[in-house]
Design brief:
Elements lengths: L9 E3 L4 E3 L2 E2 L3 E4 L2 E8 L2 E4 L4 E13 L2 E3 L2 E9 L4 E3 L2 E3 L2 E3 L4 E3 L2 E3 L7 H10 L2
């Protein structure tokens, strides 16, 4: 489900490098390297040659490359077979395809602002 470059309104090319804080409206496709505190956009696609060191925050995130950092998506995170992720994930929907390497904690919940542990314990204790 790669994003075509004509759909993405921001693009970091394969041999490009960006460092800093990146806040944009729309979709970004990263085939190069990004290092920063936070990458916050509507949709993020990390291509097979993409490498990110920093936290990601978006509605939807698709990863084929390497991400070192925490990931938060309000809709979904999709990890394609070549994805390599080191960090925690928070999302209502997580899709992991065969071949992915992931190390971190996953919080999958429709409400990312409340404690899932409390909700699970309440459900367990309910009669």
């Amino acid at each position: 489900m790669p994003i075509k470059s004509d759909i993405a309104n921001s693009f970091i090319g394969e041999k490009s490098y960006f460092e800093g804080k990146f806040l944009i409206n729309g979709t970004i496709q990263i085939n190069g390297k990004f290092e920063g505190k936070i990458l916050k956009v509507d949709q993020i696609f990390v291509g097979q040659s993409g490498k990110i060191k920093g936290n990601l925050e978006a509605n939807s995130i698709v990863i084929e490359g390497v991400v070192i950092g925490n990931i938060k998506a309000t809709t979904r995170v999709m990890l394609l077979p070549t994805a390599r992720v080191l960090g925690d994930l928070r999302t209502p929907e997580l899709i992991i395809q065969n071949g992915v390497i992931l190390e971190g904690r996953c919080l999958i919940s429709n409400n990312l602002n409340t404690s899932s542990q409390d909700a699970i314990l309440r459900e367990y204790d309910a009669e």
